[in-house]
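Minutes, project check-in
Item: structure for the 307-residue chain
Input as provided by the requester:
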Amino acid sequence: MEAKADHVLLTFVAGGLSTCCAKTSTAPLERLKILFQAQNQHYKNMGVFRALKTIYHKEGPLGYYRGNGALMLRVFPYGAVQFVSYEQYKKVLNSLYFNGALSKLLSGSFAGITACSLTYPLDVVRSRLAFQVADEQIYCGICHVIRQIITTEGGFAGLYRGYAATALSMIPAVGFGFFTYESIKDFILSMSGPLTKKNREGQEVLTPIGGLLCGAVAGASSQTVAYPLDVVRRRMQLAGAVSDGYKYSGCINTFVTVYLEDGVRKGLYRGLSINYLRVIPQVAVMFSVYELTKQFLSSDMTTERSE
């Protein structure tokens, strides 16, 4: 029982830390993606590098991290719950005789939905803070955003605007991401090549480069599939902050509106190039740090027990 509790705590801490490291490493691109997805008037017709220069010119280096405080409050519990619940769901599904591939896919999907449900309001807050620009500020901080949404956008339900699209996106984004990562990881570990090493217990584990490689492939493949739903989610989250937000009243309605007004490339996949630049290193860092943290903490626990 104690060993089981230690494993859950280890997974919780490793998942939270790895997700924070991953999100912070790509925060500037994350903010730019939000500005592009929601067609902010100041950045609507800009390319990636010109927009990054404009942010620096208007808001300085800290402009790249606008909304990152709210993001960190969200991503630690999100990452922690996601990794812990993934392990638990996988155990349950394996006990029900689901095959390995289906177990990984379903476990990842359920884990993503579980984590998202618990932390979604902070994602809405972070989107509002990241969307506003220096000379057109609407919100003063996290508490102000929450108060404004609750009082002017339908109460507590306003904090879950766009949740349906987000929950749907968990299936391809998180589910396929975990499935791809675990599948590539299992393959690499079975090869016992330069991307693996032995831990203190003599078990084969990934090297940092191995974790980065598996995470990069998982991030690129999963986000390509899930990206249109991410655009729909952002439009709905930001509906209360833009003049034409009334058009984004539901998941299907928002999807159709974006498609009819902006098309596929400039609408549903607007900002995808930024997303590749953001997601590939982000997911690579997340899984790599997760593996390293688990290895480090598990070795510490083993040492403490032996003493």
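Outcome recorded: Residues 162-269 form one domain.
No further action items on this chain.
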